[in-house]
Amino acid sequence: MAHDSNVITGIELEQFMDRLEAQQQEQEGDTWLAQLQAQSLRADSLASIDRLHTLWMQAGDSAAARAVIENDGNALLQASPEPARAELLMNLAILRLRVASYLDDEATLLEVLEQLNQMATQTLDFNVEHYRRFRIFDELEGGRLEVALKTIEVRYALTLSNPARVALRAWDAADQHQRRARVLAYHQRDEEARSAALEAINALRSAGPDQDIDEGDWLWLGNALIEIIPLRLALFEQPIAHLTAHLSLPRRREWEVRTARLAARALHAQGDLAGALKICNAAALSLDSDGGSNFIEYELPWLMEAGRIEEAGHRAFIDVYERQTEMWPATARLILNRLQDPEDHNPWWPICVMRACINEEVLQSFLSALPELDANEADTSPLLAALHAAMEDPQLLDPLFAAARAEALRRAPEQPWIRRLAAVHDAERGLIDAASEASQLQAAIQDGRMQDNRSAFSLFAAQVKNLGVIEALKQPKPILASGMYGYNYAAFIDDLVEAEADKLPKAVRDQAYWLLREAQRDAYEQGQAHMERYFASGSGHPFDACAHLYSMLCNNLAINYRYYNEQNRYEEAIELHLRGLAASSFAEHYNGLLSARIRMDDKPGIVEAAEQLWHYSAEFGYSRHDPNDYIASVAYALYSLDRDSEILIWLERLLKWQEEQGVSDQQLDSSALFARVKVARYLAHAHPDNADSLWQRYEPLVLAMNEVSVMSSSVDFHHARGRTAEAIDYCTRTLALCNDEDDYDIKCRARTEQLLAQLQAPAQTVDKKSWWQIWK
User: Do residues 7 and 40 touch, judged by C-beta distance below 8 A?
Assistant: First the structure.
């Protein structure tokens, strides 16, 4: 090809396009187009073709844009090696699709789609997976019928050309049919849509054992098709029930909620609005630990459709109250629409606005979901005017709160939630003192039968300000109506009590923590009881259905039982961890099981639990996994069980884990070094050479660290190796480090002095294992 020195290409073209894109906001379209037309431009890469044709399109010259794709694209094809041409052809076809879609050129769309379809039927030596996911296909499926159906055909052809999807052929076929069904239904081709939907179901139902199909795939298909074939609910329910029958009860209950949602949508599609809302008692249970995944996107519009305004208002309020910045955006839009209706006097709408004023972040989330207010409409009421002002400046939350409170009081002067929200607002702004806040909150909570964690925490925080943290913790414990409320209340009070307790003298501080752990245990036990009643009966509070929340609650209650206030309820803690694992497994449960077994001195249990923790962490990850914390206990258990050789396996794991963490020996802290010396001590009997090698590796670090626990463990190593002189030397070093004001050091001194006396006694015979029993 002859070189034209007047043509801008390569890096010069990229720089030209950079300048042009930077000027887009400042230039008129004509000026921009003139700059493009004034140059001779040639794109010499796919990225440059993409950029340049886009600039022509934005400048309004679609013919020039198409010329870039055709001319520069063909030139690039000729210059490309043969193996790269097939993928380049596909990318150029995608660019043509985009231009044709923008211009609504149906003939070209169908032509290019057929070209893509032909390409997909050939053997392709590049990864086509991401091409079928291009957004242009989603856009075309939402357009004209013929184009949409052809797009679905092309997408499916691309899946078939990917050999990596061999185990997903049934899913891909179902996906093709469900897309056809939805497109046909959108274009009122109802009979054909139903037929396509049934073909999608048959694709999954007839899948062979080599196909990767599970309950999630059936739910996905049900969610896509239930409004098209609402009379065929059982075709989704039955396979889901079969595939989930082996799950634990909490997990099966979650699937019951999901199928209840399908059932509610099926009834609504059949015109049975009352039946759909009745099923919402089961369908609208939250499946997220934070109260999300709660079916509000269906239930709230249905309540409005049924004219159940009071219930709809309360449902919207709970969404704003609980979800805050994560609320469903349509909730805020509904609230505004209702406030603009002069016939709607429901107090929940202004109460929702009161709640949205909790802070600037929540208010901004609320306001960002609102459509623009008409300036004339904003003048129809003080609250709408305040909303309009807040949309301009979210810092105006106090005037907005005042307007919302006034409107709510006008509609329902005795509503307890108004008093509840106002008490916190007024106290935060110094309008009432802590005693008044606590009194007003207590009265509102009692009158409104509020049993949520946020109200309980607001009251507790007011009591802390009024009475001090100790007396606040001695007040009657709140009644909490759900598992989520119990879990969250225990978490909420933790930070506040810790902050207040740190200001107290040590003796009183210990009392505060004791009372805190009691309060948390009570909250967790309430939550556990609520959730287990729901799992047993299938009915309960909207926040009692999340299996993962139950698992987290079990974990935290187990920690409380085994770790705090000298309860030592290890068997109960183990049972809680096992329930939690069955509901939703995560590594902390395995860590908790190991901790409980260590506290119980259950040596076989220690080894088994450590194995489970190690392998689970390796497979699924555990950010806080630290074998240094437990390897000494595992090594001692193996030593006691005469399974000394297995200690070497654990040592290898530990050292490899340390290497993977990028930690050098010199970076080890005292607890990590302590653990390694302990492993050497337990290897000393059956594997003395390995023990000595390990000791030689860490002896310089032991001496450099000169820390009492590490030095004491060194005494044990030398004693186990029968090196009396070295053991006596390390006893002396240990005693020199002991601090008579530290509880650990006091115990260490007593034990070291006892051992030193044994070592120095003539002809002293020491049981190789029994002395260690008291200091494991």
Answer: yes
Span 701-727, average pLDDT: 96
Q: Please give the radius of gyration of the chain, using alpha carbons only, rounded to the nearest integer.
A: 35
Question: What whole-number distance in Å separates Cα of residue 266 and Cα of residue 272?
Answer: 9
- From CA 240, how far away is CA 262, in angstroms rounded? 12
Phi-psi label, residue 358: left if phi above 0, alpha if psi -120 to 50, beta otherwise: alpha
Q: Determine the Cα–Cα distance for residues 749 and 740; give it in Å rounded to an integer.
A: 9
3-state SS, 700-766, equals HHHHHHCCHHHHHHHHHHHHHCCCHHHHHHHHHHHHHHCCCCCHHHHHHHHHHHHHHHHHHCCCCCC
Look up residue 374 and give its DSSP letter.
Answer: P
What percent of the chain is helix, strand and coil (3-state, nearest 5)? 75, 0, 25
Confidence of residue 560 (pLDDT cuts 50, 70, 90): very high
DSSP state, residue 628: G
| Angstrom distance (rounded) from CA 278 to CA 276 | 5
Sign of the alpha-carbon dihedral angle for 387, 388, 390, 396:
negative
Give the sign of the dihedral formed by CA 635, CA 636, CA 641, CA 642: positive
Which among 435, 398, 493 is positioned nearest to 427, based on CA atoms? 435
- Domain locations in the chain? 645-776
- CB atoms inside a 10 Å sphere around CB 146: 13
Token pair 């948390």: residue: 520
Separation of alpha carbons 340 and 371, rounded Å: 12
CA angle 315, 316, 322 (to 5 degrees): 85
Cα torsion through 672, 675, 676, 678, rounded to 10: 160
Looking at residue 23, its pLDDT comes to 79
**Residue for token digits 């923790």?**
613
- Mention every residue, 6+ apart, whose C-beta is less than 8 A from residue 755: 715, 719, 727, 731, 771
Helix axes 724-737, 743-760, angle to 10 degrees: 150
Quickly state the pLDDT bin for 27 (edges 50, 70, 90): low
Closest CA to 626 of 609, 611, 639, 613: 613
CB burial string 74-109: b at 16+ within 10 A, e below: eebeeeeeeeeeebbbbbbbbbbbbbbbeeebeebb
Which of these, 330, 333, 456, 354, lies nearest to 415 by C-alpha position? 354
Task: Say what the pTM is.
Answer: 0.91
| Residues sharing a CB contact under 8 Å with residue 117, sequence separation 6 or more, in sequence order | 150, 153, 154, 157
- How far apart are the C-alpha atoms of 66 and 474, rounded to whole Å? 77
Residue 441 falls in which region: left (phi positive, over 0), alpha (psi -120 to 50) or beta: alpha
